[in-house]
Records
---
Amino acid sequence: MRRMSWFNTVSLTLGFAFLYVPMLILVIYSFNESKLVTVWAGFSTKWYGELIQNEAFLNAAWVTIKVAVISSTIATVLGTMAAYVLVRGGRFMGRTLFSGMIYAPLVMPEVITGLSLLLLFIGLGLDRGVMTIVLAHTTFSMCYVSVVVSSRLVTFDRSLEEAALDLGCSPSEAFRLVTLPIIAPAVISGWLLAFTLSLDDLVIASFTSGPAATTLPIKIYSAVRLGVSPEINALSTIMIAIVTVGVITASLVNKRQMVRQKRDEQAAERS
Amino acid sequence: MRRFTLIAVPYLWLLALFLVPFVIVLKISLSDVAVARPPYAPHFDWATGIWAFLSELDFENFTWLTEDDLYWKAYLSSLKIAFVSTVLTLLVGYPMAYAMARAPQEWRATLMMLVILPFWTSFLIRVYAWMGILSNEGFLNQFLMWTGMISEPLTILNTNAAVYIGIVYTYLPFMILPIYAALERLDESLIEAAEDLGCSRFTAFWLVTIPLSKTGIVAGSFLVFIPVLGEFVIPSLLGGSDTLMIGKVLWEEFFSNRDWPVASAVAVVLLLILIIPIVLFQRNQQKQQEAEQ
């Protein structure tokens, strides 16, 4: 292996500094005593205290989590079904339209998705609230889930499923006992992706929510438009911390699983 | 029967919540504004039938888009901002992807995670982080004044420059990942061969590495260009009043002016513009898949 050239080292250092310094500054200033976000006045955790007492934020956080859990769960079921249909479904009427509808939301500008869903909900006379946000989030995130799951299904050895069928499993047993455990990591990452997309979404939620249900991003956006505030910094820090812990744990678990799988494969080859 | 359910459930869901809404947008883009709830007068009515609808059909909202120069200026300016920021993201992202692909094997997983981590962090928060840095009394100006490079604070926040910084920052992972995937597969002996045959390092890079990573560059560029074209959050938080982007115009048309027909017409035209890059992107992905097989 050739050693890293100075050029590569410099571009990596600068690149990662660019990616991480802004977030680091955000985190540091969330512990700032002063209300002025740009002037350091000593260490304090008072903004976290104020955050906990801010009921509007807590309510919005609760709505956001509820929406994210429900929509990502439905999206995972629908997305896995869609992936299975796309990879294993064979030919059926309107297949091209179906795969088009799976891929189109991935590249659709959020303002258009939001606007079109809102017009639908109004046309149907649905009251805008938690349910309409859930419907909207499920629709775009099921497409992400199906892309993640179908990429795993494509590489999956089909003969395993056929063997199960030959050995007397019904198709649904074969799916539950053979296919699902093998694609499980992809299904789980699909769920996580859907969950984060839902937590993160501002634009579509703004279009589809009503006065009764405000999500955290909507709340943050309206606070942030007025300028930088230490309370938002504290909130951001909490969110960054949760994501960091989550992503690192997920990747460690994943790594351990891969190591174990490799060991099993080697053991199987030897025997 | 089971197969039918498996296909029908996601199919119907997408038809009802993806396709039908677009038809509604199209329909409303062809109706008139009205002071009512909902604020538009529909032209299409099932009772009078499709012929009555077609005879009354007018493209008033679309001609309005060409008459008021706000709209075409916003489309042009979105295209310009999307293009320039794609190039900037490529210039920042390529060296990083290149260095990652050349890094020792045992570092790569960690470097990869460091690129993906910001992607999982809230988009809104990452944009917000720059508000505190770029403002007049912000971190960047304080730092530059401390080093003595400037004596007066620079106005960066609420200008197009801040929009570019925000876009490059938030979309960087989308550029790095496909380029890294292409570069990692690249057989290093090809570069050594080129160097042995008398190419300078730079010529070898230009004639071998760049062409072989082309699919990654194209994929990354579209992954940045397409969503930036309809971007709303970045121009609205980091841009100024003179930052024209069509996503912001659509938002304001809808929420502030409550002109739904015009907002729908803006959306329809934006979609038509997006079809070209989306088709090109699909082709590139297909070519790449065929090359892998």
---
Amino acid sequence: MINLKIDGKDVQIASGATILDAAEKVGIQIPTLCYLKKVSPTGACRICAVEVEGADKTMTACNTRAVDGMVVTTQSERLAKIRRQIVELLLVNHPLDCPVCDAGGECDLQDICYSQDVVRQPFEAEDVNAATIDHWPLIQQVPNRCIMCEKCVKTCHETIGASALFVNEKGDKAFIDKDLAKCDFCGNCIQVCPTGTMISKPFKFKARPWELRKTPSVCTLCAAQCQVDMHSKQGKVLRVTSEDGTTLNDGNLCVGGFFGHDYLNSTERLTAPLVDQQPSSWETALDKVVAEFSRLRDEQGGQALAGLASPHLTNEENYLFQKLFRVALGSNNIDSEARFSNLRAARVLQAQLQLDGASNRLDRVGQAEAVLVFGADLRAESPALNWQVQNAARKHDSRLVIANQRRSRLVAQAESFLQYRAGSEAYLAGALAKLLVDKRQADLDFLDRYVANRDELNAYLDTLDLDAACAATGVSRAQLEEAADHLGQAASVAIIFGRDVMGSANAEAAVAALANLALVSGALHGDIGGLFPIGGKGNMQGLIDAGVAADFLPGLQDYATGREKFSAAWHVTLPESGADSAGILKGIEKGTIRALFLAGSNPLVTFPESGRWRKALEKLEVLVVQDILANDLTRMAKIVLPAAASAEKRGTMTALDQRVNKLRIAVEPPGHARPDLAILCELFARLSGKPEPSEQTLRREMMELGGHYAEVCQNLEQRSFCWKKPYAPTDRSLLAATPELTTPAAADLQLLVGKCPFQFGTTTTYSAANNELAPAGLMIVNPADADRLGVADGGRLQVTGPAGTASGKVMVHAMVPPGLIAASDNFTDMNIQQIMPSGSNCVPVTAVKA
Amino acid sequence: MAEVVFSSWGGKIVDNRQGGEPEAAVFKLPASYLEEGSVGAFMGWDGVIVFDKEIDIVSMAAEYIKRVQEKHCCAKCTPGKRGTRVMMDTLARILAGHGDEKDLDILTGLADLLDNCKCTLCMTSAKPVLDTVKYFRDDYQAYLRGGRKSKQAKAYHDKLTAPCMDRCPAHIDIPAYVEEIKDYRHEESLATIRKYMPIAAVCGRVCPHPCETNCRRALVDEPISIMVLKRVASDYEWIHHLEPPMQPKAPTGKRVIVVGAGPAGLTCAYYLALEGHQVKIIDMLSEPGGTVAVGIPDYRMPRQLLQREADIIAALGVEIEYGVKLGRDVSLRELKEQYDAVFLGTGAFKSKPMGVVGEDQGYEGFSPGGINYLRAVALGEPIETPKRVIVVGGGNTAIDCVRVALREGAEESILLYRRTRKEMPAESYEVDDAEDENVKFIFLALPTKLITENNKIIGVEVQKMELGEPDESGRRRPEPVPGSEYIIHCDLVIPAIGQDPDLSYLKDGDYGIKQTRWNSIVTHGGTMMTDDEGIFAGGDCEYGAMTVVLAVGHGRRAARVMHRYLMEGKVYLDKEDAMEDIINNLGAFDKNEKVGICGGLHREHQPKIEGADRATHYEEIELAMPESQAVREAERCLRCYRVGMLAVN
């Protein structure tokens, strides 16, 4: 500890702290302008100059480390003059466009002028009057307003890892420039800009800050669920921001959170119920749903009915959805898109580790000594995890190991890059676990205490042949050893895995191998690090927790085992079994399933075999679609129920790190649209004859019957979020698995489905901002393959996979290895899922120039 | 040297403008600049020096601050960015005849305010401007009154420097690469280093870092770990398996031969290759690095990293042929005929004799020299290190020998030095390291005779010494104590007194290449060209055994001049080179400066393998500094940039 004196006050503070930190600790305010806590201090503005005894020159509080015995003065005539003159210099040729400046009213430069009594301008210089930079998408840069604080540059580099911004030119002509190719368009530069230099083009001239109503809520575009403020005016969300310091995401947002909200105001929003494609009243529409579903239930039994819910629904809505089907309709034919990814992981993790998702909080990644990112493009799949990895790798000396088929951006920051072949995931994770044991770097304390079948694990790893692993994965022995060393030498390990793993043909084996690796590496040991399956869309975790799956009840309880318990609790006899999505598809095709209820789910784009789904849906007698945006699906539906988006409804959603967030209503749903819960409640009551459940009742049921939500989550009145029950396995309760190891068959050309970094599901394809960045699906092709196929960047390719054919625009880039095409499933036009079989996101394809 | 008309340099006012008996003032500035003209004045961080009274000092100040603002100011702090801009425009206004008295107050006030700058670039640039306002007020008044026409000198030449950068023989832009580490931009940091040196992994490990003796931070607390930060930047690329980004320019069709794959040769080849020349290196050894490879043990400089640096250079299109010795396998004449230019970077690897009776007798147990011993071990030659080894000398090679001897199985390894520990030229941390490994030191002892039995060394007779008056090197001269001779028993004696270049390859023809009396090659005027046109030389063969970083500096300078020679047929220094040398001669560090800021922060050290056990292997002892620690260290840098400008008339 260090003792110093500031303005006569004694301060004790940890070694390494700055004068500013010390002053803050005792409530002494030193004016700052360029200081931003979440990035390294810049010391650019010099406003925080203070006097230190023994030093003739002033010292800047933000970047001068406090040392023992220091005597600091923060207010004096000399300092006041310096600070005033500095602001005067800042104002030399600063444009007088405050009235129309985007930052007017929330400008730090205005505030500092006011606080430092800057009322005159003694300095004069020729006006450089640099032209506004207007050619960047979504972001406008007005150099004349820039005070060169570099907050944007530092945030872009240190926090986001995009490193797109830089200072160009010298002297007074210097300005913030950008390498567009590197930009994530996350908008954090706009958020941290103290003046109106970095501007959001979509928001510009839409509102003055004081006109906006600020509603704290969460972004639900991905499962990280960042804490945000929705700014609305006249019933429209006009911008989304997040606050530094007080939010779990520390004010950081991504292109979805910052720019992606525009879909809320899309002209494609569903505003009135449709019956037979004609606008109708709610009464008519719901009467129709009740009539059709009760008729089929009564005539053919619950097995003729099916429903698919989605991660767009809240916990309460998903819970009620499955209850509606199981209790009111007597049908267990329910499922969701979790089937193709996270549910596969959750089942394995549940069986082995008693986990239904991640083992720890997001921010525990940022301090881990080693991070393994396996089969995930964090920039696209989980920006919030990417920020954590940036924090770990950049600020905490963490060793970063990336296992990926593609060369993601993070690879440049990685100590080890294991470029594996699709289908060899289990081999790769297994080989790493084996090496940790062989090198005596396994976490033996943890294994001894928690793992019930150590011998089985040892025997399994003993027989794992490293040469065969190298052959199967395409990763060299040296690379494996190096990666194992990085993981093995770390006292805390975070393992993150993504869609490439959870969607792969051998997902269960891959996740089991990663679970083994988590046990061996100590990732589950202690407070730092953990195991993190990336959640995909907004409420993926809540969707799984709610039990919207034919084989699982709430709390991931096995349906067959839990059926009796739930029958008793719900006072019904639950159906003996049910169909999952594959079964539902077959049932529709066979005609045994006659009615389908889709709540926020779109199998026409999001599900594999989407072409087959399209044909199947045409056969249905009754198709009910409850959604927020018009699409091909709503155009096929017999009944369309317009729902509310997450910014327009109440309820809770569970983030990928087991954080239960409360949604707040920022704006009312458009037209006659209603919150999903209201619709489901009414349907439940009318179809079951029971009273409409309240939000609280549903949460209580989820807690009591599901068993994994903590007590505190039931009553969220005073809080914005709570944590589910913390992960605390009992001794000798965890199981190592012995997943089958397969060597993938050779393939000339494969296609891997992933996520576009600029789009979130299909939702943001209704946002103009996101479409400006990514208007259509791309097929990313290695230059060698492009040559071979005779396509150039910007050309088109037609790809045929096991389930069909799709075509799309080509992007030639070496981030994909030869023999692999990467495509994203966010786009209705390309609809890449129409070529994909169920159960594998990477398949052999043939491709021709289109 | 021209007479000083006026000087405020260093705060000392010399004013001979009024005539009378001129006050003497001597500055290490040349009287003329290249072929261009005479040096009229110099303006920089420490004031103004005027040699020619015809120089219009107001115009010069205006030009100086304009260059600071437009060419050098990084714009990363408010007073610097805007303050120098206002100064520039104010001076321009005065020159144009639109100034008034208030403007002089603005200049004076801003000079004060610039004391609050983030770094010293703009801060020190205000100093000469302020001096002109103070001491040339009449000239300003003449402008303010109107009628005075601005008179520009024939030419102005400016140079950005910093004390560390100036002191570094390779003149690396140290503040830039340190700041890039502070900003978590390790790749950029390495790119900056590579503008001046291609072998950062080496100079990040075994550089004697003269820069750190010129570090202004040392005037506040402790110098920055400049060398280690260079290793951090260099290792980052290696640890992260990043592809070096350099791309050579289009081929020029010129062919260059570089003799010696040591630091000088590799550096020269690197910069020539980047310019698009076709470069071939020949080396007598079987691997790259020269003395760095076979003279510095792996625990200090892992050879795999040296190999990596050479591979990077080879990837630029440089061909390296090993096992070819100049003078043995090929003659200089042949090379001269076959190539458009030749660079000699043949090093200094011939051990100096110890001057002891019997050393030329070929006794078993007497090594021809420390460097020979280290080379034999490095190359895995079949030599045996016996139980008790004595190494004679006090330099880095001597230290390397005693430590290597331990690793080669010696039970006792003794260093014999005629002065005391304080006078040892070896790096003090290396002496500590040797001590940690249980090396024995015998100070104030001079070997006088080899003791042998059957032509085999069994010991050394030494004489005790005591320190007398300081000699020309400033160190106290050791003087023998009569009658103090005694015998130390040992099985191997390794003299490590120093090395000389081996220039025997010059003997097979009349090249006209002059040599110094220390048996090194003479080059001219900083061009690195020998007396034989088209043959350049640098590094130890030019200077005598010196440092890696000097060799790198030579290699780069030679490459720059050779490029001009190849493309224009002319050998000359350009403005950058010339200003570099002029400022270097003047000096950019004042060890008595009062920096005026608060310190109290310790220098960060990289972790290392501790304990005598490490003397059983060749694993690198110094471990990588964690990045967060490197950032913390880089934050201590004061970024002591400064701009000097010459007016030529």
